[in-house]
Amino acid sequence: MQLIDGKAVSKAVKEKIKTECEELKAKGITPGLAVIIVGDDPASQVYVRNKERACEECGFYSVKYALPAETTQEELNALVDELNTDDKINGILCQLPLPKHLNDKEVINRINPIKDVDAFHPINVGAIMIGDYNFLPCTPAGVMELIRSTGVEVAGKKAVVMGRSNIVGKPMAMLLLHADATVEIIHTKTKDDGEVTRTADILVTSIGKAKRVTADMVKEGAIVIDVGMNRDENGKLCGDVDFENVKDKCSYITPVPGGVGPMTIAMLMKNTLTAAKIQNGVK
Ligand code: GUN
Fold it and tell me: Alpha-carbon dihedral of residues 21, 149, 6, 209, nearest 10 degrees?
C-alpha cells in the first residue's frame, strides 16, 4: 500500500498557483476571494480559516465576511450583490451549510457564475455536464488530482462513487466519466453496497459515516479515496473508510486528515486564479 499525501500534492499545486499569481501581479492584477460565513458552526470556521491561510500562501487578496446567525436572507443577498460588482473580488464563496432559516439555493443562484469558484451555480453545473467549463467543483477536482498523482491510468477502469450529493458524489461521477472510467454511483437505497464496491478499481467514498467502509468491501489492489470527515467513537477525526484494516488491501489510499481536505482548498485557489484571469481577459 502507498499513502497518497494530500498535503504534499496540494503544496505543489499551491506553489504553481503562487508563481502564476506573481505573473498576474506584474500585470497589475491581484486575484481576490471573498468568503462568507454565517453563524458559528465550528467545522465551518476551521474550513474558512484554512481558506484564508491558503489565500495568503498564494499571494491572493482575501476578505472574510463573518455574519451573525440571525442574518436575514435580504442582508445576505445584498452582500452577494455588492461582491458581484466589486472589481477587487474575483471569487465569491458562501460557506455551507447555512443556518436553517436561510436558503442556500437562493444564494448560490445569486452569485455571478463567473465569480462562482465553488462551481455550484446551475450554469456551472450544466457546463461541467457538457464538459465545457471554467471551474470544476473543488473537492471532486482535488480527488482527480490525487488519483492522477498515483500515475495509474483511469481510462477503462471501474470507478465506484459512494454518495450522491451535489457537492461531491454527482460531480465526482461526472469527472471520472470525463476521464473515461466506467462509473457507478451508490447511495443509501442501494442494496448490498459491498457487492458493488468490491468491483471498484477506484473507490471514492463520500457518505459521512465513520469507518463504514470495511476491508471486505474493497477489491484487492484498489485505489481508495476517502472524502469523509467524521468523528470516531473517541471523538477523533476519521474518514468513511476503516483505514487500519483497509490499508493493506489497496494499492493506494488517502488518509483523513491530510488527504482530500488540503486538495479541496488548493482547487479553490486554482478556481480563484482562473476567475481573475477570465475577468481580466488574461489567457
Ligand atoms: N461546505 C462543505 N464543503 C463546502 C464547499 O466545498 N464549499 C462551500 N461553499 N461550502 C462547503
Answer: 130
